[in-house]
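Before relying on records like the one below, remember that each one covers exactly one chain. Contacts with other chains, cofactors or solvent are not represented anywhere in the record.
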Amino acid sequence: MAPEPSVAPMTLTTVVASTRPGRVGRSVADWFTARAAEYDEFVSHTVDLHELALPFLDEPHPPALRQYTKSHTRAWSRIVDASDAFVFVTPEYNGSFPAPLKNAWDYLVVEWQHKPAAFISYGGVSAGTRAVQMSKQVVANLRMLPIGPTVSIPFVNELVEDGDFRSGKLHEAAAEQMLGELARTARVMRRLRSGSY
């Protein structure tokens, strides 16, 4: 799919939510980032919360003020601010999302606003779907727009070989649908943020 004439590609940031040893989330994210890189509307890259290593929120001021005192906060702010859309790759921990993901959301406020959010979830029989439902409530409070299409991966460990996620036709079709909806929504919301409406 070609981008709109004279319009720069949008930045799509895929966030790896799990930081635990032995996780498979990074392999799932790497598959999706490579898949998204084929989509002309987006410049696609991955942020791994394990590598980002944000401490638990340690800023003295409310994030809405953007009066950051820590270099890690400023770095994270720049990444989120420069992004037009997000895909959060998450497992399900006790019926919800991992704590590092909530911490990453809580660091910022303004930078998230008016940007679409999509989700890839994985796990056992439930495929992490309850984590997605809980996550949508959080991102909506950040004034993001959670889109409908998701990618759900049940029994994910059966699909990881030598550290690589082996997608099937259903995963590919779901990713295509999600990317299309993300692109449409991100275009509109970028114009909204620019004040061109």
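The first strand starts at residue 10 and ends at 16.
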